[in-house]
Amino acid sequence: MPLNEDEQRILEEIERQFYEEDPELARSVADASWRSSFRPQRRMAIAGFIVGLIVMLASFTANVWIAAAGFLIMLASAGWLAMSLRQSTEVGSETFESWLERARQRWSRNS
Fold first, then answer.
1. Nearest CA among 75, 82, 80, 32 for reference residue 56
2. 73 and 27: one domain?
3. pTM, two decimal places
4. 39 in the same domain as 17
5. Are residues 40 and 10 in the same domain?
6. Residues in contact with 69: Cβ distance below 8 Å, sequence separation at least 6, in sequence order
């Protein structure tokens, strides 16, 4: 549902104030998009998981050892993806903590 003119104007005003009050945070929020969260490492891990799944399903009846290799590829890819996601979560929490500290400082200045 699209915003009406008044809602759009209010949203633009909030955005303008956000950029004025904390340009560093605004820049980091603008850089953190959904697309940037899927870095090449994660894409490779997902592709590896899919390849392992295909190998496992395609060869399960023909050769159990090839199917086991496909399963191991899936397992390794899932581990790689989990490690990549964990690293980005740790970095994100540091960013949040620094943002929280800046907000506390700003609050104490204004009080």
1. 75
2. no
3. 0.49
4. no
5. no
6. 55
Check if the beta carbon of residue 74 is closer than 8 Å to that of residue 59. Answer: no
Whether 45 contacts 80, CB under 8 Å: yes
CA distances 66 to 70, 72, 85, 111, Å, are 6, 10, 29, 67
Taking a C-beta distance cutoff of 8 angstroms, is the pair 56, 77 a contact? Answer: no
Q: Identify the residue whose tokens are 């980005």.
A: 88
Q: Is 17 helix (H, G, I), strand (E, B) or coil?
A: helix
Same domain, residue pair 20 and 69:
no
Domain containing residue 8: 1-31
Please tell me whether residues 58 and 95 are part of one structural domain.
Answer: yes
46-102: pLDDT as tens digits: 999 999 999 999 998 899 999 999 999 999 999 998 888 777 655 555 566 676 777
CA distance 19 to 3: 21
Contact (Cβ atoms closer than 8 angstroms) between residue 58 and residue 74: no
User: Higher model confidence: residue 65 or residue 20?
Assistant: 65
Q: Which amino acid is at 72?
A: L
Question: CB neighbours (10 Å) of residue 57?
Answer: 11
